[in-house]
């Protein structure tokens, strides 16, 4: 079979993680090796960079810097939250994409992101097929939320989970230095799925974790929450709570919405955050003790200084395999992870149709939540523990991280 | 000279750091080696443990666990915030201490903490002298605030500074992924001194740091702050601000206090959260852009997973030297750090009279603050950079930190 010859373009989309650049490194370095790929472009700010013909010639980058991408957090090429219209309603963007693809003879399209990005990827794939333009389209997964469908787990999750568990272990000790009462509430990311908040249970598994864990999969009751905190407090004087920013009450309102009016992002999602302060205040009123609300905020998704080596390697592999699959002739898929059978953890890639993953969320399994709705089971620990193994961190210069420095040479128009 | 023979007791006091246990390790391991020290006691919750005869026999601990203390954050023996009375007004506690010291033949007292703890140490020292009870008293410094008098720097500062600078570098990249406007405000600890907030400038030195830095040494003006943020924002679209929790306005009010009046929600409730949330709200009102307030909270003082090896080694040395000095016959001192002359950084210990350090704060030097009052100079970078060198982290088990596990065998009464 003769291989499809042409340029490739790669884009990053959605909220960054500490390993999304590891996937970029995998895609770019593998693409640069492939003879059939004539040019390797990196889109500035995802799909928008393609629409605006704003992309970089990745062959101009040093190999050393491309390797450093593995430990450089955030989206090195720039990300975007841009929702493509339904092509049946408005195909302007799609026609423009086709125009750009034709102009640069782009025959490979790799798109790295979460649910929304897989939707974008899927729409582009279907449009190109309909237009009869031969182009291999491949989604590369990414999200600390770990909520992509049909994959065992997502690149980005392991490192964020390791950061959350480690930080909670440290604060557990800190919160116990005085023999006076104290309640500490951690607010952890996860819009609709509790995977990352559940990672706090890894700290409990080591003996330094939260007493109570609240996931968005179970409707949140302030009254039940306060009762449960009071029960632990009255018994031990110290309470650690892990709380997902995505928790909603029975009426479907986010806890954060109770305190502040929210700005919406361009997908119409509410901007979350601030729940820790609201809960801390409620606990203070109830127990009249010292309460700390700790919001991990952006820290949890960019802490490459305490990355999971397993996660970094798998993120790289997801990018690398996307290119290999595409060159082999596969298209219209997302690269997904599958655990091999056996007692030892081994992860391999598989392909999942973009249709299947676009806009489908994988929630935290209800059977892994305890019957009180305030903790997770051993099954989750078994699932998550392999994902946080191994240490990854950037090399240091002057005692501080040395991140990748890309030249970002614009492709010739 | 015959050495003073007797037991020693060691206590931890004040807010913990990620390396206060490294000093504990130094004191305990050195004391266990000394023939003239008959027993090594660790006080539970500092001075209170002595008053209540609640202390541990440290000879019962495994060497391996004592070594692990070097990378175990927080105060392993428990801390306390307990202010001893003026002995001329009320000497109850002092008489009780003397009673306990006599009962256990305690002839060495090591106390590890910041300003208040050195005050405690000083008072105990003076009382024992006055009572004619021979006891060597030695203060061991500790504070992430770096505000102890007469020492070049304090154990705990280097690691907290490394954490702050590294985390800000990571968030710098994260905050730049979208090409839309964004303001990020970091709230950093330091009640009256700006040392730790200034550490954010180390991130700027590497090219990934804050545009504006506000220290408590300069009165804070909300109007000036908003103007300065707006100026950077209008020029670049991205602003990073490092802000000390200790900043006060011209009237001496903390920003967090101002907030209670400044920002009421629609129900008339005070806006929740610390200074970061208040400033974020004010910036949002002014610029109508996306604003994130990030409070490092407890995370910044217990992040032993990204410790400075220099700091850990020096913290150990401070403890070790306290014992050596005391055995040599020194008393009534705090162990302090001095930089050796020369281009290469070398740190040695010296002794400072407890009188001199008790309750005296070392503020951030005004000459190291830029003339706009919103940044620091190169002199600070030269000062701080050596303190964050080298990597320290706990060994891992299951991909998570393995902290020291002490047996805490209570001493026989």
TrEMBL record, chains A, B:
Q: What Pfam families has UniProt attached to this entry? A: PFK
Q: Where in the cell is it found?
A: Cytoplasm
Principal localisation: cytoplasm
Query: So where does diphosphate get bound?
Result: 15
GO-annotated cellular components: cytoplasm
Explain what switches its activity on or off, per the activity regulation comment: Non-allosteric.
Q: Where does substrate bind?
A: 143-145, 189-191, 245
Q: What is its EC number?
A: 2.7.1.90
Q: Which GO terms describe its biological process?
A: fructose 6-phosphate metabolic process
- Active site annotation, chain numbering: 145 (proton acceptor)
Domain Phosphofructokinase, chain residue ranges per copy? 12-290
Q: Report the superkingdom from the record.
A: Bacteria
- What keywords does the record list, in alphabetical order? Cytoplasm, Glycolysis, Kinase, Magnesium, Metal-binding, Transferase
Residues of the site described as Important for catalytic activity: 142
Q: Which reaction does it catalyse?
A: beta-D-fructose 6-phosphate + diphosphate = beta-D-fructose 1,6-bisphosphate + phosphate + H(+)
GO terms assigned for molecular function: 6-phosphofructokinase activity; diphosphate-fructose-6-phosphate 1-phosphotransferase activity; metal ion binding
Its function?
A: Catalyzes the phosphorylation of D-fructose 6-phosphate, the first committing step of glycolysis. Uses inorganic phosphate (PPi) as phosphoryl donor instead of ATP like common ATP-dependent phosphofructokinases (ATP-PFKs), which renders the reaction reversible, and can thus function both in glycolysis and gluconeogenesis. Consistently, PPi-PFK can replace the enzymes of both the forward (ATP-PFK) and reverse (fructose-bisphosphatase (FBPase)) reactions.
The entry describes its oligomerization and partners as:
Homodimer.
Q: What is this protein called?
A: Pyrophosphate--fructose 6-phosphate 1-phosphotransferase
Which gene specifies this protein's sequence? pfp
């Amino acid at each position: 079979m003769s291989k499809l010859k042409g340029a490739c373009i790669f884009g990053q989309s959605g909220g960054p993680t500490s390993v999304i650049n590891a996937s970029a490194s995998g895609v770019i370095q593998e693409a640069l090796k492939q003879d059939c790929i004539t040019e390797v472009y990196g889109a500035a700010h995802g799909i928008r960079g393609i629409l605006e013909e704003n992309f970089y010639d990745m062959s101009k980058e040093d190999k050393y810097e491309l390797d450093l991408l593995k430990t450089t957090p955030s989206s090195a090429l720039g990300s975007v939250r841009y929702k493509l219209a339904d092509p049946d309603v408005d195909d302007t963007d799609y026609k423009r994409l086709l125009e750009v693809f034709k102009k640069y003879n782009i025959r490979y399209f790799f798109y790295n992101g979460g649910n929304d990005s897989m939707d974008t990827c899927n729409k582009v794939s279907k449009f190109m097929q309909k237009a009869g333009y031969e182009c291999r389209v491949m989604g590369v997964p990414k999200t600390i939320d770990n909520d992509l469908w049909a994959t065992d787990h997502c690149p980005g999750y392991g490192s964020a989970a390791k950061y959350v568990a480690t930080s909670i272990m440290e604060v557990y000790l800190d919160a116990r230095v005085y023999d006076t009462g104290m309640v500490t509430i951690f607010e952890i990311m996860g819009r609709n799925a509790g995977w990352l908040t559940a990672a706090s249970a890894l700290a409990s598994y080591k003996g330094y974790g939260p007493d109570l864990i609240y996931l968005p999969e179970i409707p949140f009751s302030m009254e039940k929450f306060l009762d449960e905190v009071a029960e632990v407090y009255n018994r031990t004087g110290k309470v650690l709570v892990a709380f997902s920013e995505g928790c909603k009450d029975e009426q479907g309102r986010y806890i954060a919405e109770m305190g502040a009016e929210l700005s919406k992002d361009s997908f119409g999602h509410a901007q979350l955050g601030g729940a820790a302060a609201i809960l801390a205040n409620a606990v203070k009123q109830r127990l009249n003790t010292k309460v700390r609300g700790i919001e991990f905020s952006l820290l949890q998704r960019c802490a490459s200084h305490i990355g999971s080596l397993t996660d970094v390697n798998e993120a790289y592999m997801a990018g690398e395999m996307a290119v290999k699959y595409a060159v082999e002739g596969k298209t219209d898929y997302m690269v997904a992870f599958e655990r091999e059978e056996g007692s030892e953890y081994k992860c391999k890639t598989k392909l999942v149709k973009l249709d299947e993953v676009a806009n489908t969320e994988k929630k935290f399994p209800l059977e892994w939540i305890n019957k009180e709705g305030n903790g997770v089971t051993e099954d989750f620990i078994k699932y998550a523990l392999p994902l946080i193994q191994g240490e990854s961190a950037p090399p240091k210069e002057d005692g501080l991280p040395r991140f990748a420095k890309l030249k970002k040479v614009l492709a010739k128009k």
